[in-house]
Amino acid sequence: MSKKSFRTAINEAMAQEMRRDPRVIVMGEDVAGGQGAPGDDDAWGGPMGVTKGLQPEFGRDRVLDTPITESGFIGAAVGAAATGLRPIADLMFVDFMGVCFDQIFNQAAKFRYMFGGKAVTPVVIRTMFGAGFRAASQHSQCLYPLFTHIPGLKVVVPSNAYDAKGLMIQAIRDDDPVIFFEHKMLYDDMDEVPDESYTIPFGEANLTREGKDVTIVALGRMVKMANEAADLLKKQGVSCTVIDPRTISPMDTDSILESVEDTGRLVVVDEAHPRCNIATDISALVAQEAFGALKAAIQMVTPPHTPVPFSPALEDIYIPNTAKIIEAVRKTMR
Amino acid sequence: MLPIMEPPRPGCKPPVMDATENRFTEEASAPAEAVLGYVYDEQKQGETAAMQFNREQLLEAYRKMRTIREFEDRVHIEFSAGGIPGFVHLYAGEEASAIGVCMNLDDRDKIASTHRGHGHCIAKGCDVDGMMAEIFGKDAGLCGGKGGSMHIADLEKGMMGANGIVGGGPPLICGAALTAKTLKTGGVAVAFYGDGASNQGTTMESLNLAKAWNLPAIFVVEDNGYAESTSSNWSVSGTQLGRAAGFGIPAVQVDGLDFFAMYEAGKEAVARARNGGGPSLIHAKLNRYYGHFEGDAMTYRGAGEVERLRVEADPLTFFRKRVTEAGLLEHSQLDEIDTTVKAEIDESVVKAKAGPMPLAAKLLTDVYVSY
């Protein structure tokens, strides 16, 4: 056990699984980098260095740089998964799904059902998401609700390095297509991460704070902010439970409902756009299944219904933050 | 024999730099001849050899082509009678392509197909009764009635599925070819796709990726002249061979009505792929006898076009003529196959109609391996 970054945790998960199973391969744009170029091999290891070191250890046959061709290589990853490999495909920014979504939602997600249960498609699609990087509208979105909508896909949104490693190993061993969302603002976050291999099952939420007054459900980077809000509120005499679902397809609805039955108040924090997102999904679930337990209207903390702006002055007010979460919790207490 | 070579790119005049004026020019090319449908070229008969096949192989090739024809003609009738739900797209007229190519494949090899996929399924060994039941939406279908005509698949046979998305297959076979290369199975992967899919970005990306990764991949363009109702004379810019050349992929145009020509082209492409030589493209010129889908009134086709093609451009008729004139088979042997296949398809329809529908509980199964 030692302190490791979110980036290192994911890298370690992939490397350990590649050592364990020769069918595991990595592919994507610049996952090694430098292919065909006069300079260094493994020049990048992905734009954030998450796959750095895999190509020197496992070679170009298992760490495949691709042309910039998302439809081509995501489709190839799906085809490889359906025929016996266990590919990890790096869709660099989730915003790029626009050029390869067919391969994900019409092909990978549907093979098993359309083919009468005879297909397995064990592909992991890693992708970066989230605002805060001054990366503007086409490199900052939180598009996990779109994937959650599709039967046949599993959707993973880790909030810390420990979970990221365990969930990545689970994702690689899983026989279904998994979309693995990595918040780009978390890569340098440090956490205690065991050296050995371990898995975290899908569909099991993590309670990061326990309290009796209000239930806060948050995802990805928002879990950090929800924890901060809960810690500040505790000093002010309001105790909050913070639930990190970790995976949103499948989602641990039982933990959310049980907590709301105890607290009677719900705040959902979601960095995705406010319409048809995970916050609306969880709110609908609780309104339908735990209406009688609610003591106040459900509050949703989300960005506005706008693209992600570039200017720091605008992006900073776009992203949900601790103050907005505290304000939402206060609303449920009135 | 039609050799696969670096393509001569007939009809495709690449733009050339005019040094004096420092701008691109393009040689004017003659307008495409207005031909309604592709008609077999008698002159080419001598170029391919039927002699290399033994009697059993020839009978098998004919039996499979006849099975496709009988299957499709029967689905046409059953659909017209109202017994088949949804959409069906029929492959009749294109039999020589699927069978010619797939007779070069074995259990290691994978194919991806199209919405017009019944022929490819039969060519790769899918069970005909299971296919028919699937098309009727029955529990005994190859996919338990959950896929239907557009999604028939049998991964154990290496059939990665018909596909409802035009251009869906080429990226998938890059993946299947990558699996073969990575696991060193010796297998190859083949994408069959139409002239319509040849215009999809996925297809272009797959050609590029297959070349960049040097994959054991084969791209078979089944150019039946129409993408839905739109002519490939209009919709395909340049030529298929010119496109392959642009990616540095060896390609050949083949008479898609000629089983032997398709077999030869497939043989060379498969050999290249198995030997580490990378991808190939085969451009098969052929026709479909039915509409884009069943129910298509085909008002976009020429007067008498289909009737003429059924007489003048039937791959089964040509096969019969070739093998009987060469003294390799007797008409009576082929007639016997016709009779046997008709009875088999009759039987598959009877079984499909009589079989139970899937139980309601099946609605919820097979979404995930575990959830």
Provide a short characterization of the protein structure:
Chain A is α/β, with parallel strands linked by helices and 334 residues long. Chain A contains 12 helices and 14 strands.
What does the model show?
- The complex is a heterodimer of chains A (334) and B (371).
- By secondary structure, chain A is an alpha/beta fold.
- Chain A has 2 domains: 2-193, 3-Layer(aba) Sandwich (Rossmann fold); 206-333, 3-Layer(aba) Sandwich (Rossmann fold), CATH 3.40.50.920.
- Helices cover 36% and strands 19% of the residues of chain A.
- Chain A has 12 helices and 14 strands.
- A 7-stranded mixed β-sheet of chain A has the order 3-2-4-5-7-6-12, sandwiched between helices. A 5-stranded mixed β-sheet of chain A has the order 9-11-10-13-14, sandwiched between helices. In chain A, strands 1-8 form a two-stranded antiparallel sheet.
- In chain A, strand 13 (266-269), helix 10 and strand 14 form a beta-alpha-beta unit.
- In chain A, helix 1 (6-20) runs parallel beside helix 7 (161-173), helix 8 packs across helix 12 and helix 9 crosses helix 10 (278-289).
- Chain A is globular, with a radius of gyration of 20 Å.
- The model of chain A has no long low-confidence stretch (mean pLDDT 97).
- Chain B is an alpha/beta fold and 371 residues long.
- Chain B has one domain (51-356): Rossmann fold (3-Layer(aba) Sandwich), CATH 3.40.50.970.
- Chain B is 39% helix and 10% strand.
- Chain B has helices at residues 55-80, 95-102, 118-123, 128-135, 169-183, 201-212, 232-235, 240-246, 259-274, 305-312, 315-325, 331-354, and strands spanning 16-18, 23-25, 110-112, 189-194, 217-223, 226-227, 230-231, 251-255, 280-285.
- A 5-stranded parallel β-sheet of chain B has the order 3-4-5-9-8, with helices on both faces. Chain B has a two-stranded antiparallel ribbon with strand order 1-2. A two-stranded antiparallel sheet of chain B has the order 6-7.
- In chain B, helix 1 runs antiparallel to helix 11 and helix 4 (128-135) packs across helix 12 (331-354).
- Chain B is globular, with a radius of gyration of 21 Å.
- The model of chain B is unreliable at 1-19 and 26-35 (pLDDT under 50).
- Chains A and B meet through helix 3, helix 4 and helix 5 of A and helix 5 and helix 6 of B.
